[in-house]
Amino acid sequence: MTIVPAYEEVLRAAERIRPHVNRTPVLTSRTLNRMTGCSLFFKAENFQKVGAFKARGACNAVFSLTEDEARHGVATHSSGNHAAAVAYAAGLRGIPAIVVMPDDAPPVKRAAVEGYGPRIVTSGSHPLDRERMLEEVVAETGATFIHPSNDPRVIAGQGTAALELVEEVPDLDVVMAPVGGGGLLAGTALAVAGRSPGTRVIAVEPEAVDDAYRSFRDGRIYPPTNAETVADGLRTFLGDVNFPIIREYVAEIVTVSEGGIVEAMRLVWERMKIIIEPSSAVPVAALFEEPLAGRCRGLRVGITLSGGNVDLERLPWMGQTRS
Amino acid sequence: MTIVPAYEEVLRAAERIRPHVNRTPVLTSRTLNRMTGCSLFFKAENFQKVGAFKARGACNAVFSLTEDEARHGVATHSSGNHAAAVAYAAGLRGIPAIVVMPDDAPPVKRAAVEGYGPRIVTSGSHPLDRERMLEEVVAETGATFIHPSNDPRVIAGQGTAALELVEEVPDLDVVMAPVGGGGLLAGTALAVAGRSPGTRVIAVEPEAVDDAYRSFRDGRIYPPTNAETVADGLRTFLGDVNFPIIREYVAEIVTVSEGGIVEAMRLVWERMKIIIEPSSAVPVAALFEEPLAGRCRGLRVGITLSGGNVDLERLPWMGQTRS
Predict the structure, then answer these.
(1) pLDDT-derived band of residue B226, with 50, 70 and 90 as boundaries?
(2) Is A55-145 the same fold as A7-52+152-305?
(3) Interface mutation target, options A50, A273, A276, chain B, most CBs of B under 10 Å
(4) Could you give the residue ranges of the DSSP H alpha helices within chain B?
(5) Is B7-52+152-305 assigned to CATH 3.40.50.1100?
(6) Assuming Cys at both sites, which of A160, A299, B104, B114 could form a disulfide with A173, CB separation 3.0 to 4.6 Å?
(7) How many CB pairs under 8 A join A and B?
């Protein structure tokens, strides 16, 4: 089976985006090591441009365009980090960016994207409204659509985070990443398989939106559930480009509870003094819950902290009593 | 005039505490550089042991004790980072620590100190009650009192943060630190004067509790005001050990507004994705307010981010509208 993109695409992406993204640090925490029994290495993509790993994929896609393609700009649908990342990358290249955003997007998210200067087009909140609006925009402008997760250029770009991690920390037993749309996970899997083939890739998903878990188990892509999760960036589903990569190179997908995600997020804030968004806490939570809790004891575990964009007015533990 | 401690004490402190504290990173932020017009270098003591620079002074004090002194333990009064730091250092040396804490200390602060395992003795909330209780404890146990800020060993220890900063980032035009009790500031001043004498040290204080500002201006130590400030760690006053050092080596003390502190704290959280406590935001705020705003444009400015211990249930910007 031919996997597209291949590991070599991750290497090329790393070269291509180097001038435009941060080489983020790898952090450690003796407290979290003690609590989990692991040696943990956190790839801190919360310190990435636009506050999330999404800058990598967006930059790789935007800087992969030919001059002719680029002239017509880029378009995407997203109300979150990917929209900001596409706008950021387009700004660097000096080309137009159009973001289709549902009319019920939270003002704080909309404002974050607006800061990067794209043209924002509002659609109805139903996914089909969004798709239709995007098609119109593309037909009208000739812009190139950059899908948040099911695009080979995006996948290769996201893979550069794990590539840096396994280059910097050799002999990892496990690399963990959250899974939502599958772009980060597929890129991670490609990078690890190519650069550190002895390392197992384990993906973690909120059990409330466990479509990737079930898709992986059953070998077919399930549509997204309509459920809510605190890790709202993971409420998306796998695609036909990233799913074959995930099936080939990912060892396991596990799920975590909502309460576990919130506890893990708070733990990282309190003990590591860094701001991570709920999606980043998803793999951390897995170290404390079945089926993974204890199984990683004594292992060297890399974890991608995917981003740090949080509404600082409303933190998920507020109004709750701690477990 | 002989300054006690001298720069050499900071160097000795650095050797003494090296096994026990983190060499914290120096962070940069292109966003904050753009906003301020400076080249900023943040010494991230929020990543220090116990979450604050206080670990440095406490470790230097505890590991300076003779075996005979150490056997009787150490004592302090504090409901904050210094208490945790003394307990942490005592735990490392395996000696008793006693913390006198007012009966109205917030439960979250008390819990944070308890985590390091000292004996906690409760006193009335008036400073005189606290002093009397501490004297009783010392008389009864023979423990060595470690003052939070007016102790030569503590001052020398705190100075190691700035020492690392100026070693790592040469040619700084300015180093900024918050001032409360004066321990960090005096240590910073000694380290910078000794290692980087061309660098100006500028201290920043909340204007609501501007006793250090007035003391520096008038050449005499004023007692603390009773006012509130969001940077509650700075509600203390200078002492006879640190004041001569501050007068000799600090170029300037400026004050900042409460609103400015909150805005600066939020700015660092949002843009740098790190958790800092309000006291850490005090020097950052000064870059945006008179009399300093604009004056540092084009300069290389080091800033000590003093700590990251925050009650995550109650953030100071909540319930406010943003300016």
Answers:
(1) confident
(2) yes
(3) A273
(4) 7-17, 30-36, 54-64, 67-71, 81-93, 107-114, 127-141, 152-168, 183-195, 211-218, 242-249, 258-272, 278-286
(5) yes
(6) A299
(7) 38
- The per-residue pLDDT for range B113-166, each reduced to its tens digit, is 999 999 999 999 887 898 899 999 999 999 999 999 999 999 999 999 999 999
10 Å CB burial of residue B288 (0-12, 13-18, 19+) is: middle
pTM higher than 0.90: yes
List the single residue in B47, B270, B315 with the smallest CB-CB distance to A273: B47
Q: Do residue B318 and residue A317 have CB atoms under 8 angstroms apart? A: no
Q: What percent of chain B has pLDDT over 70?
A: 98
Residue B321 has pLDDT above 70, yes or no: no
Which residue from A216, A173, A214 is spatially nearest to A192, judged by alpha carbons?
A: A173
Report the CATH architecture of B55-145. 3-Layer(aba) Sandwich (3.40)
Domain ranges of chain B: 7-52+152-305, 55-145
Residue B246 tokens, joined: 């501050």
User: Residue A323's pLDDT is what?
Assistant: 44
Chain A touched by B26 (CB under 8 Å): no
Instruction: Please check the confidence at residue B246 and state whether its pLDDT lies above 50.
Output: yes
Instruction: Note the pLDDT of residue A2.
Output: 63
**Half-sphere exposure of residue A34: CA atoms within 13 angstroms, side-chain side:** 5
State the pLDDT at residue B2.
60
**Is A266's Cβ below 8 Å from some Cβ in B?**
yes
Q: Does A313 touch chain B (CB under 8 A)?
A: yes
Chain B residue numbers with beta carbons less than 8 Å from the beta carbon of A273 are 46-47, 51, 274-276, 308
Which of B272, B275, B317 is the closest to A269 by Cβ?
B275
